[in-house]
Amino acid sequence: MIGRGRRDRRASDAELELWQRAVSDTVPITKNIAATARKQRTNIHVSDQTAKEPALPSTGRATKTQPIDRNTLARLKKGRIEIEGRLDLHGLSASQAEQALHRFLLSSHTIGRKAVLVITGRGLNPDTNGPGILKRETPLWLDRMPEIVSSYAQADRRHGGEGALYVRLRRKKRAIPVK
What we know:
Strand order of the largest sheet: 1-4-5-3-2
Order of helices and strands: HHHEHEHEHEE
């Protein structure tokens, strides 16, 4: 245990003073965080474009799409987590691709898939020499579906690399049996 020091060491006066200054302006967390979040969500204006998108299942709680954690990503890359479905968006316009993505993810979620692969292609925008439209827009579309999409990340080279995304889907809510 070299270099770990004594565990029962008391903080010096200087350390205590520094700590007090660091936490002097903190406010305790209240138990009404969920109620505050609900109030803030109700003030959001929904555009006409959002109303045209397919309805997503509602869990009644705020969710957010996160990046895939390191361990899960490694298991996907090594094939230890099965990719249960693939969607190839090559050759589709942006609007066609968005609709196909929504339909694919909704049906995949409905049948209980956990991990799918979305192939966008690397693409190249000739005007900006940046990424193609589908590669750029697909993560934005995935972020709009936090009730279904748990996380996503760039795929391994053998699954499409820069031109594909692993998408992890949330668990399907089970119906509570009525007694």
